[in-house]
């Protein structure tokens, strides 16, 4: 019988990996900044219209935009912290990239928990270097 199990994808830290990780975070931060700028432009236009019509609605819009600003600032702070962690990675150490789903065959007489325990795939600069089975 084939069952699913978690497989950890780990990477050996290299300059290339650190550059990829930090560039990814930088790109996401840039996208957040652009989205925030667009939101601010739309907010200013909307507020001009809403203030003329309904002060109560203007207050509700302002609160909603303030909430969205806080969410975006929190996301940027989290990404900045993540980038700092990436910069601290040491060359040659293993870094968990993500968990992926894999399968394993289970037969009568196998230790189920040993078989179901996750395996690991180790890559270095996108090349598989090692597969670790439990």
Please, could you describe this protein's structure?
The protein is of the alpha+beta class and 134 residues long. It has one domain (2-132). 58% of the residues lie in helices and 26% in strands. It is built from three helices and four strands; from the N terminus they run βααβαββ. A hairpin with a 2-residue loop joins strand 3 and strand 4. The protein starts with a strand and ends with a strand. The mean pLDDT is 92.
Strand order of the largest sheet: 2-1-3-4
The general outline is elongated
Structural class: alpha+beta
Written as H for each helix and E for each strand, in order along the chain, the element string is EHHEHEE
Oligomer: single chain
β-strand amount:
25-35%
Number of domains: 1
How much is the average pLDDT? 92
Q: Determine the fraction of residues in helical runs and give it as a percent range.
A: 55-70%
Rg, alpha carbons: 24 Å
* Number of extended strands: 4
**Low-pLDDT segments:** none
Distance between the termini: 18 Å
Largest sheet: 4 strands, mixed
* Structure annotation, total helices: 3
Summarize the structure.
The chain is an alpha+beta fold and 134 residues long. It has helices at residues 15-53, 55-88, 112-116, and strands at residues 2-12, 94-105, 119-124, 127-132.
């Amino acid at each position: 019988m084939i069952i699913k199990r978690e497989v950890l994808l780990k990477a050996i830290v290299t300059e290339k990996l650190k550059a990829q990780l930090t560039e990814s975070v930088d790109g996401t931060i840039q996208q957040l900044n652009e989205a925030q700028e667009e939101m601010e432009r739309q907010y200013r236009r909307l507020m001009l219209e809403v203030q003329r019509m309904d002060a109560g609605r203007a207050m509700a819009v302002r609160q909603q935009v303030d909430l969205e600003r806080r969410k975006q600032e929190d996301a940027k702070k989290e990404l900045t912290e993540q980038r700092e962690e990436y910069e601290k990675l040491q060359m040659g150490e293993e870094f968990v990239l993500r968990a992926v789903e894999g399968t394993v065959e289970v037969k009568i007489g196998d230790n189920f928990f040993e078989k179901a325990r996750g395996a690991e795939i180790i890559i270095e600069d996108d090349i598989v270097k090692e597969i670790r089975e439990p």
